[in-house]
Amino acid sequence: MRARFVAMAVLALALAAGYAQAAGLTDQYEILERHHEALGGLDRLKAETSVYFDGTFTVAGLEGTMKYWGVPPDRSRMELDLEIFKQTEGDNGEFAWSVDQNGKLQIIRDETAVKAREVSMLKRAYEHRDPDSAVFDVTFEGIELVGDVECYVLKTTNTIDNNHSIEFFNTETFLVEKMVDATSDGEMHTRFSDYRDVGGIPRAFRHYMEHLPIGQVQVLELTNYEAGIDIDPALFEPPGEDVRDFEFVDGGSSVDVPFEFIERHLFVNVAIDGDETLWVLDTGASMTVLDEAYAEQLGLETHGNLKGSGAGNVVEVSFTELPPYRVGEIRFEQQTVAVLDINSLFRQTSEMEIGGILGYDFLSRFVAKVDYANEMLVFYDPASFEYEGDGVILDAPLRGGTFTVPVAVDGEHGGLWSVDLGAGGNSFHYPYAVEHGLFEKPAIEAVGFGAGGRMNRRYSQFETIELAGFVLSDPRISIPWEETVGAFGASDITGNLGNTVFRHFVLYLDYERQRMIVEPGDDFDRAFPVDRSGLQFWVQDGEYEVLHAAAGTPADRAGFRVGDVLRSWNGIDVGYFDGIIAIRELLREEVGTEYRVEVLRDGKSKTLKLKLKDLF
User: Whole-number mean pLDDT of the chain?
Assistant: First the structure.
């Protein structure tokens, strides 16, 4: 999940291109000139050596304050305090940094953010005003109505990244009514109003923001705005010390923690107030997540109702203060965590009950070693960790708290992929799949699930996938069936790498140095069983029900239909099987394996003959 709090822009609803001649202006640079004249002139704006403002910030039932300090073009600091959720972002002129809701410092190094930072600095230096700029291209897009106000529309693109902005200038006042700031994650739409004179320059004191496509609305109401004030340069520097909210109980510098690898997910025991539950370990979770029902059981108060990006869709989360907890011999202090209904999903797909998801708020404190073959985790204190093995060290900049590494599929589909230990399989992002014609490959349709709920997907088999110079054969990689909202919809990431690849390796996840170390594991050459049926079950009202029977597969040829209720398998009542996971394992047996499956359909019993075969 990812929650966005940075204010940018809002959507113009009505196109009125026919107004262009009536309004008179069509030259984009003349419009920009008139805009800056309305703000007191470019010389006056450039002379504004510093700025500070503060105000109230509201979002999804949370209310607090925002403070901002800036020295253009490259130094800034923003503090957001919503009580239960706090965030600080800064830039010291050399690099950007952030401190999250639990006090964890992160230096921003991922390529997308670095490019966006460069574009922002150049725009704050008014480089886009130059018609001969080698970076910016400003185009006149006509006139649109913003509410009942006619606005000149200018679009600004650049040669550094694929982002763009669209500004709507009032044709009478030449002040900005709206802005659309488009990135690979979506669009931030901002409506500006309540302009007030500050030292001879009109400033918007109300910003109404909507992040699309998730639809999260945020409102900033300024209380104070000051310019030309003295600001201590130290304010723009990151904290000198990082948070340390954990301890190794035995006083050492590392801890071994066993995990269970079930249905391609990693589960560890977490103890809270003496109560121990299984939690998923997930590098793709930008926050630690507590199950909604478990939070209620613990008597925890929740706050807010924020929208964020889950796997394949939008999720709504609240926040709470998680009491001190323990993972093996690691003891954590209280943390702010997200709250989400995740057990309804696990009950349907695995009949499991879990307490939550250990994400960035847990993992980022360590160098985490993940040995899949031996089902063992080792958490090292980053202050004393030194790697002495023969593995391949990859630069892996964090993007939203998730590692990104270079991966190549079939030697041609390269780029950066997200490292997601919370994902069972691998998936191309939808924009990449469309751009590179991957929907033309033979594929099997399937249904997937994530924090964002149900996703219709299709998966194809490729020849190779290469990570850190190691090559695996015949990987199955899925693609969202249609354009998706959420974690798999970003256009600047090629795909999402999951445990069907990682289970061949030993991984070291070094958050402080933003790197990943890859060693071949004991199962590197193992051929893991795969589904040979095209049949998917889930749990509905205590029954094992057919969720999907893919066209052209053994399930389809056997005559399975969505909604069929499983009754027996080779004459054995399903009640004797060890749950839905055991039934799923039967579908991964050798080619040629035959089953007689009794199902209940429309109140009548039917026996279907299923014969397994390779799907590709």
Answer: 92
Distance CA 25, CA 40 (A): 20
Over the stretch 40-75, which tens digit does the pLDDT of each residue have?
999 999 999 999 999 999 998 899 999 999 999 999
* 393 and 458 fall within a common domain: yes
- Are 299 and 336 contained in the same domain? yes
Amino acid identity for residue 501 in this structure: V
How many beta carbons lie within 10 A of that of residue 71, not counting itself?
A: 18
Longest dimension (CA), the chain: 86
pLDDT of residue 213: 86
Q: Which residues make beta-bridge pairs with 446? A: 457
Type of residue at 76 = S
pLDDT band at 13 (very low <50, low <70, confident <90, very high): very low
Q: How far is CA 232 from CA 70, 89, 154, 226, 229, in A?
A: 11, 16, 36, 15, 10
In a shared domain, residues 447 and 544: no
Helix axes 343-350, 579-586, angle to 10 degrees: 50
User: What's the one-letter identity of residue 349?
Assistant: T
- Count of domains for the chain: 4
Query: Comparing 327-331, 349-353, 453-457, which segment has the lowest mean pLDDT?
Result: 453-457
Long-range own/partner contacts, residues 549-556 (CB < 8 A, 24 or more apart): 550/444, 550/445, 550/446, 551/445, 552/444, 553/444, 553/615, 554/610, 554/611, 554/612, 554/613, 555/610
Residue 134 burial (C-beta neighbours within 10 Å; 0-12, 13-18, 19+): exposed
Asked if residues 474 and 465 have their Cβ atoms less than 8 Å apart, the reply is no
Contact 589, 601 (CB under 8 A): no
pLDDT tens, position by position, 158-199? 999 999 999 999 999 999 999 999 998 889 999 999 999 998
**CATH number for position 471:** 2.40.70.10
| 3-state SS assignment for residue 251 | coil
454 in any annotated domain:
yes
Phi, psi (deg, nearest 5) at residue 473: -100, 150
The CA distance from 384 to 395, in Å, is 20
What is the reported pTM?
0.91
Report d(CA 145, CA 150) in Å as an integer.
Answer: 5
Burial class (CB in 10 A: 0-12, 13-18, 19+), 568: middle
**How would you class 606 by CB atoms within 10 Å of its CB: exposed for 0-12, middle for 13-18, buried for 19 or more?**
middle
CA-based angle 401:404:410, to the nearest 5?
155
In terms of DSSP H, where are the helices of 472-543?
Answer: 499-502
The 10s digit of each residue's pLDDT in 91-132 is 999 999 999 999 999 999 999 999 999 999 999 999 999 999
Tokens of 117: 């930072």
Q: Are 411 and 418 in contact (CB under 8 A)?
A: no
Q: Which domain holds residue 118?
A: 14-236
Closest C-alpha to 432, from 501, 478, 397, 499: 478
The phi, psi pair for 28, rounded to 5°, reads -60, -35
